[in-house]
Amino acid sequence: MDISTIIGISLVAVAIIFGIGAGIQDFIDIPSIFIVGVGTIAAVFVAHPKERSFKLFGIVMSTIKERKSDALNLIRTLTSFSEKARREGLLSLEENIAEIDDPFFKQGLQLVVDGTDPDLLKSMMESELDLIEEERMGHKAVLDSAGAYAPAFGMIGTLIGLIQMLKTLNNPDTLGPAMAKALITTFYGALLANGFFLPMGEKIAIKASKELLEKRLILEGILSIQAGDNPRILEEKLKAFLNEKELAQYESETQVAEG
Question: How far is residue 238's CA from residue 234's CA, in Å, rounded to a whole number?
């Protein structure tokens, strides 16, 4: 699990509950929850095709799942494949294809073994990268839409409450409670948007950026293997994809392994 998402959601809940204090029951209103919750989901369904909108719950849950970075192992794997290809030829890598779990990596290595033209291989793999990026940004767009519609339905609920309040305007004793109830939907909408949907959308964008960087690392490694680059040169090229912390870890683990 992505512990930062869990901590963030928990802190949002704690902050709201602490801020409300003992009168939390006054902030629970089922019709208001229905207006904001169902209204937001309905608007997302209208705004996006079913291939995306029907995955709303799954998209939300994906922000809680931890995506482990595999860049270090990818560099080691690609370097070892480069060494093997230099010794035994590109066809020798065919027996390693079944060991790979990443579909993108597997596809690229298969194209190398099949003798695909380098320019065509690069074009095909970059097209695949574009499709992956489009899908991830589509997931972010779903959450961004939910974050935009939730406050809007909060305002709609508030307007409904105000209309109902105006019907009893001749009774001053009911104005305060009626106004408070009318504003609850605005509270729900703002909370859902800023405490959940919009931050989760940002989390998906960050994860997508990291995933695409690793895919580009794979593509660079595959093209280098196909070109017959020296394994040491390939390794140095791929290390450029690592951040400072990852690079230090890679160097440390490499020294331990060589030692």
Answer: 6
The tokens 């859902």 sit on which residue?
Answer: 192
Structure tokens at 253: 């683990």
For the chain, the structural domain boundaries read 3-21+34-67+130-204, 71-124+215-258
Q: Which residue has the tokens 């504003």?
A: 183
Q: What is the pLDDT of residues 16-44, one digit of tens each?
A: 988 888 778 888 888 889 999 999 999 99
pLDDT category at 156 given cuts 50, 70, 90 is very high
Q: Can you give 35-68 as a three-state secondary structure string?
A: HHHHHHHHHHHHHCCHHHHCCHHHHHHHCCCCCC
Residues in the chain: 259
The residues, any chain, with a CB within 8 Å of residue 253's CB and separated by 6 or more, are 72
DSSP string, 205-221: HHHHHHHHHHHHHHHHH
Classify 37 in phi/psi space as left (phi over 0), alpha (psi -120 to 50) or beta.
alpha
Q: What is the pLDDT of residue 213?
A: 94
Among 44, 65, 64, CA closest to 54: 44
> Is there a contact between 249 and 232 (Cβ–Cβ < 8 Å)?
no
Q: Which helix (H) or strand (E) holds 241?
A: none
Indicate the DSSP class of residue 91: G
The residue-averaged pLDDT of 212-240 equals 93
Q: What pLDDT is stored for residue 259 in this prediction?
A: 61
What pLDDT was estimated at residue 207?
Answer: 92
- Give percent helix, percent strand, percent coil of the chain, each to the nearest 5: 85, 0, 15
Q: What's the predicted TM-score (pTM) here? A: 0.85
In 3D, which of 107, 71, 99, 100 has the Cα closest to residue 238?
A: 71
